[in-house]
Specification:
By secondary structure, the chain is of the alpha+beta class. The protein contains 13 helices and 20 strands. Strands 12, 13, 14, 15, 16 and 17 form a six-stranded antiparallel β-sheet that branches. The protein has a five-stranded parallel β-sheet with strand order 6-2-1-10-19. The radius of gyration is 22 Å and the shape is globular. The relative contact order is 0.14.
Length: about 450
């Protein structure tokens, strides 16, 4: 089968390599030419989040182990680490996105059956009511199936697919990358990915990556304009130093910054199916996957995990129904509705309520509790951990929290609230960043 994959990010490259290893002939098209030669920096134009912190959950490790263990071996050889639980089961891959994509790209370059084409996708080619290819800088590339792995924007599909649901969740973020000095140990941690703090009105997280690299990220609702100053390096570091446990990470004797403070854009929760109102593919021969189907805010680090879960299912579905791409599309869309959409709905609910609380609102006991508050309640009642654990690890869908909701609600009704670690409130953090001169 001739397959065209649009987008050479993690989803597109993973899908292309796995399909090629099943005998497909795959052409991957992306406007980025890949890592430059001779060690020059890879900018990945148009991918704003490329140099920002990422969490690669266990589902990413599972996908690599199942489909391309050689890639996982290459990542660990390059410095990535598989974090494990006490039972030695994997929980996350500690790795920068740039390394993740470099290794996948190198594997795709060498993979028999994969052709990488650099260029801009102009249009989707349709013949006899189905997708038949794409035009790349004026040249037509044909295929039996066109896989859209181009991300949330997915411009080349135009109005072919149904409208996107969801939108801006209201949060913004800024990240800076650092590297440990030779022989230095990481700072304090409270999770397998590093140090994660939910403070009063914002989040602050230290992400452990590969080879001594780590990132620190602040996320807030953007309503306090003073926090825009976090984009300045000196201001950012002063904000980190205001949080005692994070301050240990950037002690000059322990680490040094290797990037500027990198402001991110608005964060989105979106979902976009691929069937019409009659339940048929809107365009036979066109299948979307990854962020082109579902985007969730990175506040829970589920993005790449959900994308590769989709990719694995799409690969299995195409294997089962090579002769009937339309039926494969229907089956895959239904799977996404059952296994991916619930995470979108969960994020939309949780993020909206988090923004409300960050703006000064209290826990609203007149509506169902969002999942983050149910999870937080396990801090006060360990009996809830058995229920919230599978949800937190993405081994169970958000509906699995239903048995814990009433118990958590009763706990919040007593006046209990999650505790905050030592560190400034949002207003206090804003005062800190207001005092620091920003370099011109």
């Amino acid at each position: 089968m001739r397959t065209v994959v649009v987008g050479a990010g993690p989803t597109g490259l993973f899908t292309a390599i796995a399909l090629a290893r099943r005998g497909h002939h795959v052409c991957v098209v992306d406007r980025d030419a890949g890592p430059p030669a001779a060690g020059a920096p890879w900018r990945r134009k148009g991918v704003m989040q490329f140099h920002h912190a990422h969490t690669f959950r266990r589902q990413v490790v599972d996908a690599l182990q199942a489909e391309m263990p050689d890639v996982l071996d290459d990542l660990t050889a390059a410095g990535a680490t598989v974090a494990t639980l006490p039972d030695h089961g994997p929980v996350a891959l500690l790795c920068r996105r740039i390394l993740f994509e470099q290794v996948l790209r190198r594997t795709a370059d060498a993979q028999q059956g994969v052709a990488l084409v650099t260029g801009h996708v102009d249009t989707l080619v349709q013949e006899h009511g189905r997708a038949a290819g794409i035009t790349v800088d004026g040249r037509t590339v044909t295929g039996d199936v066109i896989i859209d792995a181009s991300g949330r924007a997915s411009r080349f599909t135009g109005d072919v697919r149904p409208p996107t649901e969801g939108g801006n969740c209201g949060a913004v973020y800024v990240t800076r990358q650092y590297r440990l000095r030779r022989g230095a140990s990481p700072g304090p941690v409270n999770s397998p990915i590093g140090l994660s703090f939910g403070l009063s009105g914002y989040l602050a997280i230290a992400f452990v990556h590969d080879g001594g690299h780590f990132s620190i990220t602040f996320t807030h609702d953007g309503s306090d304009t003073r926090l825009r100053r976090l984009r300045h390096d000196e201001v950012f570091d002063d904000a980190v130093r205001a949080i005692p446990a994070l301050a240990e990470w950037i002690d000059p004797a322990r680490s040094q910054p290797i990037s500027a403070a990198l402001p991110g854009g608005r964060l989105y929760n979106t979902y976009r199916g691929q069937l019409d109102q009659a339940g048929r593919p809107v365009l036979p021969g066109l299948v979307a996957v990854g962020d082109a189907v579902c985007t969730t805010t990175p506040l829970a680090g589920r993005g790449v995990a959900l994308a590769l879960m989709q990719a694995r299912e799409l690969i299995r579905t195409l294997d089962r129904h090579r002769a009937d791409i339309s039926y494969a599309t229907i089956e895959f869309d239904r799977w996404c509705e059952d296994h991916i959409r619930p995470w979108f709905d969960d994020h939309r609910d949780v993020d909206a309520d988090r923004m409300r609380r960050w703006s000064g609102g209290d826990v609203d006991l007149h509506r169902p509790l969002p999942s983050d508050l149910i999870v937080a309640a396990a801090e006060a009642d360990p009996a809830l951990r058995e229920i919230v654990g599978p949800y937190s690890s993405m081994d169970a869908l958000p509906v699995s929290l239903a048995p814990a909701e009433a118990h958590a609600r009763a706990l919040f009704a007593t006046g209990w609230r999650p505790s905050f670690p030592a560190g400034p409130t949002r207003d206090e953090l804003s005062a800190v960043v207001s005092r620091t001169p920003a370099a011109a």
